[in-house]
C-alpha cells in the first residue's frame, strides 16, 4: 500500500484527455506545482517511546524485537488512513499523527499482553488492519503518544464448519486472502467493498462494512455470527448460536465499535458456496427518480439481484460507474441513468432471478443496455481510489461521502446533500461536479454515495472540511444517517453524537468505561475523548 496514496503504484489510473479538459474548462482545475515529498524526506519526530515501555511491548509479543518498530518508515506507513484529507496532509509532509511505535502481535494472548503493557506505560492504542479508513479512524483525537497495533500476523483461517457453513477468521486477513482460503474449500464470504483488495476482516467488523454485492450476500454485520474481543478488562466472547433470545445481542456492541471498546481477535462468519455463475449487465433509465423507483420494486418485491446500483445523470455522463473507462460516456453523449445489475449463484437460480428482474425493470421504464456496462463495472470495481489519486495529482479536490435513509426520505436527502456541497464549494470560488449513485438497497431504504470533484483552493483540507460539514448538516436535516458504511471515526463523531442522542452516548460511554477503564483504546474515535 502506498504511504501517500492508494494501493499498488503500478495500477495508477491516468486521466483521459476528455477528463483533464473537463477539469480545466468546467471546474477551473490547474495542476498545482507544490511537490509531493518522497518518503525519505518526510521529517518524523523522534519516537517518544521510552526504553521501559519498549521492553514491555517486546515481552508482550514474545520477545520479538522486530515486532516493535519505531523506525521512521514504519511509523509513517501507519499514520492516518486514506481519506483525501489524510493524503493531502501526508503529501505535504504533515506527520502530526504519527504513532510512537508499531507493534505486531501474533494471537489473542499477545494482544491482551500488549494492552496490559500500554496500560502500564500510559500509551494509547489504535488497531490497524489494512489502513483504509476514510473517516479519521486511525488518528486518535488527542495529542498523546500511541501505539499502532498492526494485526497483519493474525491472518489465519482458524476453523471451517462445513456442516453449519461457518468460518472463523483472524482479523488481519485481507479480504483477498480470506477469499482464497475459503475458495480452497469451495466457499466464499461474498463481501466485496471498494476497499476489498486491502481491507481486512477485522476492519470489516469494526466498521460495519457493506460490500458491493450486499443486495445478494448482505452487509458484513449480517454475516457475523460471533466475535472475540480483547479488552483492557479481559476477553469478551460473543455468539454461541446462529440466533438467541438470551438477552441483548452483545455482538452488536462490538460490530461498529471501531477499536474504541477493544481489539477484535477472531470473527466467525457465515459462508456460502462459490457461485457457479457471475453475470453483470447494464440497464438505462430516463431519470434518477425513475431508476430509483425500479430499484425499490426489486428490493421490496423481488426478485432481488446480487448487485444492484444506480448512477444519477451526472455520474452516468462522466462514466464513474465504469472507472476503467472514465470519460467514454462524454464522447458517446450517453444520457439518462445507468443501473448495474448483477447475478451470482447457480445456473438455474441466476437465470430465474435475471428473467424476473428484467421484467420488473422493463415495466419500470428501463431499457436493457447489454452485458458490456456491467462487465466494465465489474472489471473496474476497485479502481475508483486510484482515479481519486490521479485527480489529486492533476490539482483537483476529489472525495466521497455516503449516507442512507428510508425510501420516502431519499429524494429530499439526495437534493439536500447536493445543494449543500454545490452551494458551499461554489461560494468558496470552486464550483464542483457532484455525482451520486444508489450503492446498496434494502426493503425499507437505500444508501446514497456521493463523489465530489472541484478545484482544490488555497487550503484544500480546510476547503473540503467546510463542504463536508455542510453536507453532514444536510444529512441530519433530511433524516439520513451520518454514515452507512464508511464508519464514524473522528470525522463523523460530532454528528454521530447528535444522531445517537445524549442517553445513547452515555450508554456507550458506560460500555467503554467497563471494557476500557483508562480510555486507552482509539481515544476520540467514535466518541469524544474524556
> In CATH terms, what is the fold-level topology of the domain at 9-150?
Uridine Diphospho-n-acetylenolpyruvylglucosamine Reductase, domain 2
Strand order of the largest sheet: 15-12-14-13-17-18-16
Calculate the terminal CA-CA distance, rounded to whole Å: 33 Å
Shape: globular
Counted beta strands: 18
Could you tell me the radius of gyration in angstroms?
Answer: 23 Å
The level 1 CATH classification of the domain at 9-150 is Alpha Beta
**Uncertain stretches of 5 or more adjacent residues:** none
The major sheet is characterized as:
7 strands, antiparallel
- In CATH terms, the superfamily of the domain at 9-150 is Uridine Diphospho-n-acetylenolpyruvylglucosamine Reductase, domain 2
Total of DSSP H or I helical runs spanning 4+ residues? 19
Q: What structural category arises from helix and sheet content?
A: alpha+beta
Helix content: 25-40%
The appropriate CATH architecture of the domain at 9-150 is: 2-Layer Sandwich
Bin the strand percentage: 15-25%
Mean pLDDT equals: 95
Descriptive account of the structure:
The protein has 530 residues and is α+β, with helices and mostly antiparallel strands. Among the domains are: 9-150, 2-Layer Sandwich (Uridine Diphospho-n-acetylenolpyruvylglucosamine Reductase, domain 2); 277-379, Alpha-Beta Plaits. The chain is built from 19 helices and 18 strands. It has helices at residues 17-27, 51-60, 72-76, 84-91, 108-121, 175-183, 201-207, 214-217, 220-223, 251-254, 288-301, 313-318, 328-332, 347-363, 372-379, 384-393, 410-427, 460-477, 493-515, and strands at 68-69, 101-103, 124-128, 146-150, 157-161, 166-169, 187-188, 224-231, 234-238, 263-270, 272-273, 277-285, 307-311, 337-345, 367-370, 396-406, 433-441, 445-455. A 7-stranded antiparallel sheet has the order 15-12-14-13-17-18-16, sandwiched between helices. Strands 5-6-10-8-9 form a 5-stranded antiparallel sheet. Strand 17 (433-441) and strand 18 (445-455) form a beta hairpin. The longest helix has 23 residues, at 493-515. The model has no long low-confidence stretch (mean pLDDT 95).
Amino acid at each position: 500500500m502506498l504511504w501517500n496514496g492508494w494501493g499498488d503504484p503500478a495500477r495508477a489510473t491516468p486521466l483521459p484527455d476528455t477528463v483533464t479538459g473537463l477539469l480545466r474548462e468546467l471546474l477551473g482545475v490547474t495542476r498545482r506545482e507544490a511537490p509531493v515529498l518522497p518518503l525519505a524526506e518526510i521529517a518524523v519526530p523522534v519516537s517518544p517511546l521510552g526504553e521501559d515501555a519498549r521492553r514491555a511491548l517486546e515481552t508482550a509479543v514474545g520477545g520479538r524485537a522486530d515486532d516493535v518498530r519505531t523506525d521512521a518508515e514504519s511509523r509513517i506507513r501507519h499514520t492516518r488512513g486514506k481519506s483525501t484529507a489524510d493524503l493531502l496532509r501526508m503529501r505535504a509532509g504533515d506527520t502530526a499523527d504519527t504513532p510512537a511505535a508499531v507493534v505486531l502481535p501474533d494471537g489473542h494472548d499477545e494482544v491482551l499482553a500488549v494492552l496490559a503493557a500500554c496500560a502500564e506505560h500510559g500509551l494509547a492504542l489504535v488497531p490497524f488492519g489494512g489502513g483504509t479508513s476514510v473517516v479519521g479512524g486511525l488518528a486518535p483525537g488527542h495529542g498523546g503518544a500511541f501505539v499502532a497495533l498492526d494485526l497483519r500476523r493474525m491472518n489465519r483461517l482458524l476453523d471451517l464448519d462445513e456442516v453449519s457453513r461457518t468460518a472463523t477468521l483472524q482479523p488481519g486477513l485481507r479480504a483477498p486472502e480470506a477469499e482464497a482460503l475459503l475458495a480452497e474449500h469451495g466457499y466464499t464470504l461474498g463481501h466485496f467493498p471498494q476497499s476489498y483488495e486491502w481491507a481486512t476482516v477485522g476492519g470489516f467488523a469494526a466498521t460495519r462494512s457493506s460490500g458491493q454485492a450486499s443486495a445478494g450476500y448482505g452487509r458484513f454485520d449480517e454475516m457475523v455470527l460471533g466475535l472475540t474481543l480483547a479488552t483492557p478488562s479481559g476477553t469478551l466472547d460473543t455468539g454461541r448460536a446462529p440466533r438467541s433470545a438470551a438477552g441483548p445481542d452483545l455482538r452488536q456492541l462490538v460490530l461498529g465499535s471501531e477499536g474504541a471498546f477493544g481489539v477484535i481477535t477472531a470473527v466467525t462468519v457465515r459462508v456460502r458456496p462459490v457461485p457457479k455463475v457471475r453475470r453483470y449487465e447494464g440497464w438505462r433509465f430516463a431519470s434518477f427518480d425513475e431508476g430509483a423507483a425500479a430499484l425499490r420494486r426489486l428490493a421490496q418485491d423481488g426478485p432481488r439481484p446480487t448487485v444492484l446500483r444506480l448512477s444519477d445523470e451526472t455520474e452516468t455522463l462522466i462514466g464513474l460507474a465504469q472507472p476503467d473507462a472514465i470519460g467514454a460516456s462524454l464522447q458517446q453523449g450517453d444520457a439518462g441513468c445507468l443501473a448495474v445489475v448483477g447475478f451470482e449463484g447457480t445456473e438455474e437460480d441466476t437465470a430465474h432471478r435475471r428473467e424476473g428482474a428484467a421484467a420488473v425493470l422493463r415495466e419500470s421504464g428501463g431499457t436493457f443496455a447489454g452485458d458490456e456496462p456491467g462487465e466494465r463495472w465489474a472489471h473496474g470495481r476497485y479502481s475508483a481510489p486510484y482515479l481519486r489519486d490521479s485527480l489529486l495529482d492533476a490539482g483537483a479536490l476529489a472525495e466521497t461521502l455516503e449516507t442512507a435513509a428510508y425510501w420516502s426520505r431519499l429524494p429530499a436527502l439526495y437534493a439536500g446533500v447536493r445543494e449543500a456541497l454545490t452551494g458551499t464549494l461554489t461560494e468558496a470560488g470552486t464550483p464542483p461536479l457532484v455525482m451520486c449513485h444508489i450503492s446498496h438497497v434494502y426493503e425499507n431504504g437505500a444508501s446514497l454515495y456521493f463523489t465530489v470533484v472541484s478545484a482544490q483552493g488555497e487550503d484544500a483540507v480546510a476547503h473540503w472540511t467546510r463542504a463536508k460539514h455542510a453536507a453532514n448538516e444536510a444529512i441530519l436535516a433530511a433524516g439520513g444517517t451520518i454514515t452507512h458504511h464508511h464508519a464514524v471515526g473522528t470525522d463523523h463523531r460530532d454528528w454521530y453524537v447528535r444522531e445517537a442522542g445524549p442517553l445513547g452516548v452515555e450508554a456507550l460511554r458506560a460500555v467503554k468505561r467497563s471494557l476500557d477503564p483508562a480510555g486507552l483504546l482509539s481515544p476520540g474515535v467514535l466518541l469524544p475523548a474524556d
